[in-house]
Prior knowledge:
2 domains; Glutaredoxin; alpha+beta; 5 strands
Amino acid sequence: MKLYYSPGACSLSPHIALREAGLPFDLVKVDTKTHQLDGGGDFYSVNGKGYVPVLELDGGERLTEGPAIVQYIADRKPASGLAPAAGTIERVRLQEWLNFLTSEIHKGFSPLFSPETPEDYKPVARKRLAARFDWLSKELKDREYLLGERFTVADGYLFVLLGWAHFVGMKLEDWPVLKAYRERIAQRPMVKEALKAEGLAK
């Protein structure tokens, strides 16, 4: 398999999942500003949407959209426990979390990263994102991970998203529960490996 990624982008979530699952894969770096592949080549020829992540399977088929990719990875290695079994209420809870993260947290950052967003709208976007952080803090107050005591692909995704806060003028220190949660996940050996491989940690 090949994972097309950009350092620190949302593609870090499936990168973590691949390492946690113990699956073999190659990394292909993408410049998301120029849409060029590391070493040359047009990324649009890989994904017409123009963004990461893309997971290319051994047969050549390509998967896009992070929540779908991480569930595929988890299902390749059920013993990893990265996702509850299909058909269970716990699996639906995982999908519920992944949908919330992609629509309410991930997309909440989008206007704050976009150079086209008017400056006077950014405080509004931060306020909305802060409200989601407030809710998340309450949910995580008495649990280790999003689904309870077990790390899943949803936690890898939230870890990545929370790491973006300081880039948009928000401080995780304002949400001690979220800060502690992210620090906990950062200590996982496979998370450390993923960060190192992307040049985000030594």
